[in-house]
Automatic annotation (TrEMBL):
Residues 10-111 form the Regulator of ribonuclease activity B domain. It is found in: Cytoplasm. Keywords: Cytoplasm. The keyword Cytoplasm applies. This is Regulator of ribonuclease activity B.
Length: 115
């Protein structure tokens, strides 16, 4: 998914709005998981290292098979945060140049409902 920062802001507003409308706790700390994918493992690994250096917790890469049988590698970078649109978008803005540098796709972010 190759959206620009404004489109990611709109997507982030929608996600946060839905979570809060469903009754998720607005004062809780959330684990925000940013998702990445690339067909080239070495490029993915370099992006993961750079994101780790920025302070993100980076998961181990996993290999997945696409519908057409091609292999793709994925990992997540996580942070702890309130459901703050500006903070989440600021993190995305930090990530996008790294992802462009290594040609890694940003596949959005997610989190879990908090009571």
């Amino acid at each position: 998914m190759s959206l620009n920062v404004q489109e990611w802001r709109e997507e982030t507003v929608a996600i946060v709005t839905e979570l809060l409308a469903d009754g998720s706790n607005p004062d809780a700390e959330y684990e925000i998981e940013h998702h990445f994918a690339c067909q080239n493992f070495e490029q993915l690994e370099k992006a993961a290292v750079d994101l780790f250096k920025l302070g993100f917790e980076v998961s181990d890469a996993e290999e997945m098979e696409l519908d057409d049988g091609a292999a793709i590698f994925c990992f997540d970078a996580t942070t702890e945060s309130k459901l703050d649109v500006d903070a989440i978008v600021a993190d995305i803005e930090k990530m996008l140049p790294i992802l462009a540098k290594y040609r890694v796709d940003y596949d959005g972010w997610g989190t879990y409902f908090q009571e």
